[in-house]
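Quick check before the chapter quiz. The format below is the same one you will see on the exam, so make sure you can read both the input and the output lines.
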Amino acid sequence: MFLCPRLVVCAAIAAALLPADVTFTESTKFVGGTMVEMMRKMASNPMMGRMMAGNKRTFQDDTYDVYIKGNKMARWGRVTSTIYDLDAGSITTIDNAKRTFTTTTLDEMRQKREQAQQYMKQQQGPAFDFDVKVSNTGQTKMIGGVEAKEVLITMTAKQASAKGQMVVTTHSWLVPYTDAAREAAAFQRKLGEKYAFLTSGPGVGQGVIAAISQAYKQENGFPAEMEVEISGLMAGPMPGGGDPNAPMLKELVEASNFAKGAVDDGKFAVPAGFKEEKRGR
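Here is the expected output.
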């Protein structure tokens, strides 16, 4: 069979442009904040710990093995794991200890988000939107033997609620792109665009999601380390006389060990024997 040289070249170019399978390691550490400290104290109390039950793992550190293949990403951790499927528009959350999982579609998430925003409007006024300021600080440090440059991302809520005005500060340390890190960043940007509606609102979780999404939008390097700090939502006296303006959450996210190579489809499937938990509609 004769193969047209032009078709061969075009096929080679198309193959080169296809997203490559990527793996890397990501760790999440909750390093401080009034809410983190309060939740950990409650969890360590025998009586309160029993009452909190499943919430005891809310601010628990974890390390994830991350796999990207096409339009799917899986984050397998010790406590929880998550599978993102951009084509299906779904997120599957896996509780490794309970051996259960929950799958939520994009439409379901949007509906629940809209319901939550309506509730917040009734309770506290409009949902938060952020003024975003990005600046290169000129600071550098070594991460994994590579020089990282700091980008400071400050997001200030345009509206103040009865609990204060949320401020999310992210010290993002960018390292030069490798091929694998560039592929990972491209997927993270697609993920951020697909679920952009989750980055609005007054919740602490939404603040972290929005901050990390902003860090991945930077074009001049990959965020190998992100220090996320949220403050401004604890107006009024604090238990024990603490500062109401003190940061309520400090989180450190680190990414490393990037590599390109074939990823098995099994990484994007719920393990056999795990039971699905149906959430109330």
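If your answer matched, good. The mean pLDDT is 79.
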